[in-house]
Amino acid sequence: MSSTAFDHTSLGQRVLFGSRAAVENTARAVADLGAERVLLIAGRSSAQAARDVAGTLPVVASVDEVAQHVPADRAASAVALAEGSDADLVLTIGGGSATGLGKAVALRTALPLVAVPTTFAGSEATDVWGITTDGTKKTGSDPRVLPRAVVYDAALTLGLAPRSVAASSLNAVAHAVDGLWAPRADPINRALGTEGLRALVPALQSFARGPADGDDLPLREQLLYGAHLTAVAFASAGSGLHHKVCHVLGGAFGLPHAEMHAIVLPHVTAFNAPAAPDAGARLAELFDGVPAAVGLRQLLADLGGPQALRDVGLHEEDLRRAAELVLPSVPPSNPRPVDVDALESLLRAAWAGDPVDGGGADQ
User: Fold this and answer.
1) Quick one: which of 266, 249, 283 has its CA closest to 355?
2) C-beta separation of 329 from 137 below 8 A
3) Residues 6 or more apart from 237 whose CB is under 8 A from it?
4) Quick one: which of 357, 347, 292, 290 has its CA closest to 321?
5) Are residues 141 and 175 in the same domain?
6) pLDDT tens-digit profile of 107-161?
7) Which of 142, 275, 308, 343 has a CA between 20 and 30 Å from the CA of residue 58?
8) Rounded to whole angstroms, how far apart are CA atoms 74 and 286?
9) pLDDT tens digits, one per residue of 53-79
10) Best CA proximity match to 261, nearest among 296, 226, 214
């Protein structure tokens, strides 16, 4: 008779969810934390949302320059601004780059963080941080970087182009998929990730077709809900092979974060799923029995995003070096043995945009 045993940690975080309620909910979250001097971090693409949401808050300083993968110099400048302005709370409004910079400030200052995401990437629901120095992205987890509160408002995503919605949401899909074979995978985070995928995948399939009445706000709400669940699962399960690959590609080669995740995911899934039959079965169920890697690749194609790493800036001559950089960080718990040649083969298939199958290899 088999037995079940595991050690699971759940992160404590307040979530305020509601369309067209961001102004009210953000003010409530900030007030309930007793903040009187707010550092606002919002990239230029989120400037209007920042003006709308933070207009009545006690903002004492602001940062409007954010960058993917959180360059160390940007982090240092933001920390200095927080300390120099005597801020008592960090508020981020925007995508993963804004959230990531806010996390870097919280990591160094221990200030409470409130996040108002305008994309579907899910960083706001994790205690994972990342800072890039001289082309090397260092990541870690720390309770100080977990936002005390997250304000979700799907209306804030309406200005996000369909291609960006697709790439960002596929990043959320990656959180759940990679979590199925991550180092701390357990029945609870598998359940959260699977439920998140049950929201994300049908919503993305409908998004690819386009809503019949032209109103996609309900789909965006479903995507935000799913993205939150998969991010919570990821925070618990830890980074698996997929995220280790993408951390290297993003930090060392400056590839666009969301698009890179969307391209790489089917190839990592094709590599790992045959050695993780339970994970493969969970994923195939979402695609009506189609092998997980094939279903993910078809979803990417249906959404119209780039399907090859060469299309987002990776050069063929960098593939071996990328494989060598990834290898030391591959989790020992990965369901399939990994060596540098296997990694190079996986990366080459993703670079070329090769088709995938469900049998453990790219076609």
Assistant:
1) 266
2) no
3) 178, 179, 180, 182, 183, 184, 185, 186, 189, 190, 193
4) 347
5) no
6) 999 999 999 999 998 999 999 999 999 888 898 999 999 999 999 999 999 988 8
7) 142
8) 40
9) 999 999 999 999 999 899 999 999 999
10) 296
Q: Are residues 215 and 137 in the same domain?
A: no
Cα 242 to Cα 83: distance, rounded to the nearest angstrom: 36
d(CA 263, CA 116): 26
**Edge-to-edge strands, sheet with 38-41:** 14-17, 149-152, 113-117, 89-94, 38-41, 59-63
**Residue 92 burial (C-beta neighbours within 10 Å; 0-12, 13-18, 19+):** buried
The C-alpha angle 58, 61, 66, rounded to 5 degrees, equals 125
Q: Are residues 228 and 149 in the same domain?
A: no
Domain count of the chain? 2
**Residue 361 forms part of a structural domain:** no
**Residues with Cβ < 8 Å from 189, sequence gap 6 or more?**
8, 179, 232, 233, 234, 236, 237
Compute how many other C-beta atoms are within 10 angstroms of the C-beta atom of residue 222: 20
b/e map of 48-73 (b: 16 or more CB within 10 Å)?
ebbebbbeebebbbebeebebbbbee
49-54's contacts with Cβ under 8 Å and 24+ in sequence apart are 49/22, 49/93, 49/94, 49/116, 49/118, 49/156, 49/159, 50/93, 50/94, 52/22, 52/23, 53/22, 53/23, 53/26, 53/93, 53/116, 53/151, 53/156, 54/26, 54/91, 54/93
Same domain, 185 and 235: yes
Q: Which of 124, 157, 190 is the last residue of a domain?
A: 157
**Does residue 61 sit in helix, strand or coil?**
strand
Together in a domain, 178 and 284? yes
Residues 100 and 140 in one domain: yes
Domain that holds residue 196: 162-352
Residue found by looking up tokens 């049998």 in the block: 359
